[in-house]
């Protein structure tokens, strides 16, 4: 049956490139009729959720007939104590993606501009366009953000400047001095978003803590998530720190029940599990060191990443390499959708066994 064309759909939405997530393991196994595939494509935590979170999930699943606490009161209190930020400056979202989207809807309309690095996290660009704003992409320098160039792209139409720190897909960071210098020069009318989804993985002493900038009264929103170090990507809980005024706007715009009862409880339980955080960090550091040693031996160039993945430049097409890897049950993520050349793919750090399997299969195909 043919449906009539719908004129009411906005042109910005028609021209949107949909976000393409990493291929799910089940899909690859179904396609190839194989089992035991591994996924190193979505920057997930191979350790799995904390046992405390699993217990909280079981307990709260029974309350699934009730709507969640729309204010996430207990989780915001726990985050407030953990990070020493007043609860009235905290909002929780269905992943930090939700908060990126809410911030764009709060700030952007036709004619408004949002500055981001290129390459950087594509969901920001999508959220800007959905809100009706214009994305201004500033080429990175050597696969790092270039804060001076980003500053130079700011004008009176700019409402938002977005830093992913560490960045996705590069894993590189903006250091203290560069960020400090940026904040000294950025005009008052701009809100800077510091997306720190991989914050807990970074051990470089030159890595700035976005909360410090908020404490110093800067116009900044700091976003973090339970998807990465806390291994709760499937439960969708992210959070942000804002000025009190912006926090109250976020509460007006976000959906009333954007976080599930189970997600909130699992997040609270995970926040208290320092051992899980430490083990995740250690497993990731071991995996990154292994990639740094082994991947260049196979001709791959990798970025100096601080996150739970590396951006790799293959000697030939990474798209073909990814296809060959998939045939062997290993999923990685070619980076054409992130605006990079076909030689680039992003490879997440898995468990030691998964990392070794990747290297072993790569050795056969590169
Ligand atoms: C830089 C960055 N920000 C935000 C997110 C979204 O995370 P969440 O699962 O909290 O929506 C990701 C996920 O990969 C990311 O890489």
Can you describe this structure?
The chain is of the alpha/beta class. The protein has 2 domains: 21-48 and 275-365, Aspartate Aminotransferase, domain 1, CATH 3.90.1150.10; 51-272, Aspartate Aminotransferase, domain 2 (3-Layer(aba) Sandwich), CATH 3.40.640. Helices cover 40% and strands 15% of the residues. It contains 14 helices and 13 strands. The protein has helices at 11-14, 25-32, 51-61, 73-83, 95-107, 122-131, 147-152, 176-185, 210-215, 244-253, 261-271, 274-297, 318-327, 352-365, and strands at 38-39, 90-93, 113-118, 134-139, 158-164, 191-195, 220-225, 238-241, 301-302, 309-313, 330-331, 333-334, 344-348. The strands form 3 sheets. The chain has a 7-stranded mixed beta sheet, with helices on both faces. A 4-stranded antiparallel beta sheet has the order 9-10-13-12, covered by helices on one side. The chain has a two-stranded parallel sheet with strand order 1-11. Strand 5 (158-164), helix 8 and strand 6 (191-195) form a beta-alpha-beta unit. Helix 5 (95-107) runs parallel beside helix 6. It is globular. Pyridoxal-5'-phosphate (PLP) is lined by residues 43, 95-97, 121, 164, 168, 195, 197, 225, 227, 233, 238. Pyridoxal-5'-phosphate is lined by residues 43, 95-97, 121, 164, 168, 195, 197, 225, 227, 233, 238.
